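Data availability (excerpt). The following record was deposited with the supplementary files.
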Amino acid sequence: MELSDCIAGRIRRQGPVSFHEFMEWCLYDADLGYYTSKHYPIGTQGDFYTSPVLTPVFGMLLGKQLEEIWEQMGQPGFTLVEYGAGTGHLCRDIMGYLESNTKMFAQLRYCIIERSPLMREQERKQVPGKVEWFNSIAEIGDITGCVLSNELLDNFSVHRVVMQQELMEVYVDYQDGFTEILLPARPELKDYLAELGICLARGYATEVNLEALGWLAEVASALKSGYLITIDYGCGNPDMYKASRSQGTLVCYYKHSVNDSFYAHIGEQDMTAHVNFSALSHWGAKNGLAETGFIDQGCFLSSLGFRDQLLNVLSDEADVIRAAQKAASLSHVLLMDMGSKYKVLIQHKGLKAGKLSGLRGSKAKLQVT
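Predicted structure:
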């Protein structure tokens, strides 16, 4: 049975469901969801690319930043937790970089939290030894070190809301096809916008990622001393709620093309929404995670020596012209294209934050209200 038929049947039996619940089924249904079925989403044969798949330099530079963090923390036993490791490329490249630091590597514990059986299978093919897999961060125990996520939060299921006479939430019904209806928004959605100081104009539609707040609380509870590094595409409040985004940021990726057909290719396409970094900073602080810095991915990588590291990786290329073309292409994609769209938010807990190389030129504190 197709996932669309399964969802339609559920709605017929129980009535309209929130778009959040519909999106959760599309992405994470136990048998037929986009991330839980045998569909392979990343790379040439998938629907999108991630930075670690494009070049090992991305992971190597993160390894360099983690090494600096370890040194500033006094070279303790270091637990690194990666959420949603995907293909395993990032883990492989971070570990490859850190292996040369024998003292740190000996004290390193690398933990992956992965909910997709297919991705776990792929990760095991890529990553070296010394890696453990968990279903939740609570299973790991108290963490001294760093929690890392790359393109994770944009795939959390979101609530869709629109302002009319009052805030309304989008629900999904089924009447000879999927249809949308509006019902009064639940209090927690109104509270989310109010706490961020957001007043939506009539007709303005947007998304609310409540799951990200729960995730922050889980991470903060487990992290006793260290850093949280969140890399994703999104923005802070001023950009998130500007007039040009009045229809929201949710899009779908299908075979490397972008669309807003949420009810097509169900279970076969990715669904993703911009991350509100102002919300992460605000609710992070409420959970004991202080903001260390916020910066574009391109500036973050450049500050860590992207060009030199890239040229070093490409130095074995026999064809000099081809190497130069690769360098130019990767620099454009990772520093300018994805580099301007993707952001890096670093937060800390249980220590006095040092000056991190990746945050040179960091933006001012995220604006919340």
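Summary of structural features: The first helix runs from residue 3 to 14.
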